[in-house]
Amino acid sequence: MSESWVNSAERIGTDLHLELSGPGGRRAALIRALRDAVRSGRLAPGTRLPPYRSLAADLGVARNTVADAYAELVAEGWLTARQGSGTRVAMGIPPTPFRQWGSAVPPRHAGNTPGRTPPRARGPRHDLRQGTPDVSGFPRADWLASYRRAVQQAPNEVFGPGDPAGRIELREALAEYLARARGVRCDPGRIVICSGFAHALRLLFEGRVLRGPLAVEAYGLPFHRELLTGAGVRTVPLPLDEHGARVDRLSRERGVLLTPAHQFPTGGPLHASRRAAVIDWARARGAVIVEDDYDGEFRYDRKPVGAVQGLDPERVIFIGSVSKSLSPAVRLGWMVLPEEYVEGVLAAKGEREAWASLLDQLCLADFLTRGSYDRHVRRMRQRYRGRRDRLVAALAERAPHIEVTGVAAGLHAVLRLPPGTEAATVARAEQLGVALDGLAAFRHPEAVERAVPAHDGLVVGYAAPSEHAYTAALDALCATFPDP
Ligand SMILES: Cc1ncc(COP(=O)(O)O)c(C=O)c1O
After folding, report:
1. pLDDT tens by residue, 280-330
2. Which regions of the chain carry the CATH code 3.40.640.10?
3. If you average pLDDT over every residue of the chain, what do you get?
4. Where does the HTH gntR-type domain start and stop, copy by copy (predicted)?
5. Preceding omega of 265 cis (within 30 degrees of 0)
6. HSE-up of 385 (CA within 13 Å, CB side)?
7. Pairing of strands 457-461, 412-416
8. How far apart are alpha carbons 93 and 77 in whole angstroms?
9. Which CATH number fits domain 375-479: 3.30.70.370, 3.40.710.10, 3.40.720.10, 3.90.1150.10?
10. Residue 321: CB within 6 Å of ligand 1?
11. Which residues make up the CATH 3.90.1150.10 domain(s) of the chain?
């Protein structure tokens, strides 16, 4: 006999999983199962057991069988029975360590695979890689307060399947915020919530809402290019100069992917004349501009750069996320769409929200409408500006021959290097325990055959190290550059 039961003993509010198996009939099996549950700690001292009648009903045994089993265990000292407080697990029985009952196999992770070195517990000594905000700055208290309010005030329907467009509360809050802070022209009906920029790209290209070929900046995030290639989209590199992407090189592509507020990774904004030119190109060709506004909030000492989308909302798909402003762990983003793409994107998302938690969406809506998002961004902007200033000052003092660029905004800078010296400099940094990337890591694979000029440089993220580790990271970085 071997039967598994899940007893949802609603009257006492506990679920009890018991397996009645082995020799000696049901009474003996129940005694063994309860003893094991207490011994292993699954039933903690003091836990109230279900009344005879409900456990008997759940297990499909006679009420007396349960009563006898409880009585036996009370006699043995495993349980206590007291008038008015029911039958409970006796106090003071220490659970036997799990290993005696569990498997002796250690948990599986990559490091357990034979022939592979276990992953190092610690990262590099000095982490100056771009891509991560200062995770210690996550506004835990305000986020929790918003989450609590969101869950308390949520209508019941929130706990059911969600609309693929996203919660209206969040779309309304974003419409207001994006218009105010980023110069985006939109109404909530044009916003579709997603789980971040990469998800938006998938919806657009894997969902066949847009097709290639797609022009992209010759330096960009390889992960995004690979995602596009995986979706069968050919990407064509556009050269960059001091005014940003050379949009005059656009020709027969169906669209262009740009980071106009802060070119990733080289760092400058797209020049005003180029913004106008790329809109003209898109209108003339019926093409679309995909605007990646990944860190548009973080600008330090130049005038705010509004979204290109504001110039023509019917030609630009504007995409943002909280990955840089709050945390990449939250996985929330938004797309502001021209009318012609709304239906296609919603169809690509499916019938119900399958990506972005509705509760998180309500939390972010609350966070935005209460001003917590603005406060957080202002606080982080100050912190990052301080970091940026220390980086610039350290290099000016100890490596004055190194030109620092792309520092007016964002969470990283680019240190220009003499042609042909990048690979050796990255290697030297690594020897000194400094993790960072050279610009070559971001270069489009077809850049050479398309005669896109190469730029040598280091991409230095200044957000990731904790406050106390930053000075040492700067020291190690400065030591990377030998005197000229
Ligand atoms: C260039 C660029 N675009 C977009 C993003 C945001 O990506 P996601 O929203 O998928 O986390 C990042 C990283 O945060 C980025 O570096």
Report:
1. 999 999 999 999 999 989 998 767 789 999 999 999 999 999 999 999 999
2. 137-374
3. 89
4. 24-92
5. yes
6. 13
7. antiparallel
8. 9
9. 3.90.1150.10
10. yes
11. 375-479
- Specify the domain boundaries for CATH 1.10.10.10 within the chain: 2-99
281: its two tokens: 């190109």
Residue to mutate (ligand 1; options 294, 297, 319, 332; most atoms within 8 A of CB): 294
**Cα→Cα distances 283→117, 209, 338, Å:** 54, 18, 13
Whether residue 328 contacts residue 146, with contact meaning beta carbons closer than 8 Å, is answered with: no
The CA-atom distances, in angstroms, between 278 and each of 49, 125, 234, 315, 447 are 71, 43, 20, 10, 21
Give 328 Cα–ligand 1 centroid separation in angstroms. 8
Reduced to 3 states (helix: H, G, I; strand: E, B; else coil), residue 288 is strand
Q: Output phi, psi for 217, to 5 deg.
A: -65, 140
The CB of 182 under 6 Å from ligand 1? The reply is no
* Domain 137-374, second-level architecture: 3-Layer(aba) Sandwich (3.40)
* Ligand 1 contact via 319 beta carbon (within 6 Å): no
Q: Considering only the top CATH level, what class is 2-99?
A: mainly alpha
For ligand 1, is residue 293 a contact (CB within 6 Å)? no
134, two tokens: 């200062």
Residue 328 Cβ contacting ligand 1 at under 6 Å: yes
